[in-house]
Structure formats: structure tokens, C-alpha cells
């Protein structure tokens, strides 16, 4: 594996910066693969990964410490929004900056077809909602 393909395994910032929202049917109880027990309802059509709809988001599936050795506990079942993340994209750079990590240079091209800009993620962290 090249350094480019491993760059996310030493980062994880996007998993601890943005709300990871996706169509409800991507969850396993809707016929998809994302474990529904790791999600929460946003509205009738949308879910998000548990932990990402908070003032200090962190996906429940993120393993390890941001900026260190990290991985996704549900990588094969992750939602489309996560599959669309591209190392070095504007969203990636914002997430890295939010965690004090240096920018990645020259990372936004040459990745596999399942890594394209991530329209399914909020561009800024969302505030925690009050219960009720």
C-alpha cells in the first residue's frame, strides 16, 4: 500500500469533526449494511452515526486517537458518506485543521473510485441538540 492509501489510518479527523448523515435505508434494519445500533435518527429520511451529532463529534465506530493510529470498526459496512471521503479534500483539510494536524499536500487525486468529495457530511460541526 502506498503512503497515500495509508494516510487516513494515521488521521481520523473527519470521523471526529463532522456529522455523518446518510439515507435511513443504508442501515441494516432498512436493508443496508450500517449497523443500526450505531446510528441515531435525524429525521424521517436521514440517520447519522452515533456520536457525530454533538458539539464535539466523534463517530462511535472510530477506533484509536485522532492523529495517531486509527481505524473504522465498521469499515466494510460504513455509510456512503464515509466512502466518499477523499484524503486531502477541502473537508479533510478542515477536519485536520480543527484537530491541529498539518495539511496534507497532493492527496486529493489518484484515489480509488469510491473516494470522491463527501457531500453527505456537514461542512461544519453541528451543535448538540437539547433533549425533548
Compose a concise summary of this entry.
It comes from Chromobacterium alticapitis. It contains three helices and five strands.
Overview of this structure, please?
This is Zinc/iron-chelating domain-containing protein. The protein has 132 residues and is an alpha+beta fold. The protein has one domain (3-98). The protein has 3 helices and 5 strands; from the N terminus they run αβββββαα. It has helices spanning 3-6, 80-83, 90-98; strands at 21-23, 39-41, 46-49, 62-64, 70-72. The strands form 2 sheets. A 3-stranded antiparallel β-sheet has the order 1-3-2, with no helix packed on it. It has a two-stranded antiparallel sheet with strand order 4-5. The longest helix is centred in the C-terminal third of the chain and has 9 residues, at 90-98. The radius of gyration is 14 Å and the shape is globular. It starts with a helix and ends in a 34-residue tail after the last helix.
Describe this protein with a few key phrases:
132 residues, alpha+beta, three-stranded antiparallel beta sheet, two-stranded antiparallel ribbon, 5 strands
Helical percent range?
10-25%
Instruction: Quote the average pLDDT.
Output: 82
Tell me the span between the first and last alpha carbons.
47 Å
The arrangement of helices and strands along the chain is HEEEEEHH
Beta-strand share of residues: 5-15%
Count the beta strands: 5
Counting structural domains, the number is 1
Amino acid at each position: 500500500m502506498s503512503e497515500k492509501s495509508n494516510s487516513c489510518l494515521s488521521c481520523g479527523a473527519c470521523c471526529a469533526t463532522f456529522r455523518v448523515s446518510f439515507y435511513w435505508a443504508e442501515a441494516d434494519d432498512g436493508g443496508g449494511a450500517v449497523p443500526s445500533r450505531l446510528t441515531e435518527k435525524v429525521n424521517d429520511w436521514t440517520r447519522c452515526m452515533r456520536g457525530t451529532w454533538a458539539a464535539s463529534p466523534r463517530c462511535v465506530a472510530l477506533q484509536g486517537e485522532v492523529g495517531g493510529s486509527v481505524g473504522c470498526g465498521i469499515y466494510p459496512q460504513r455509510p456512503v458518506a464515509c466512502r466518499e471521503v477523499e484524503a486531502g479534500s477541502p473537508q479533510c483539510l478542515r477536519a485536520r485543521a480543527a484537530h491541529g494536524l498539518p495539511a496534507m499536500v497532493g492527496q486529493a487525486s489518484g484515489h480509488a473510485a469510491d473516494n470522491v468529495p463527501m457531500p453527505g457530511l456537514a461542512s461544519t460541526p453541528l451543535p448538540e441538540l437539547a433533549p425533548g
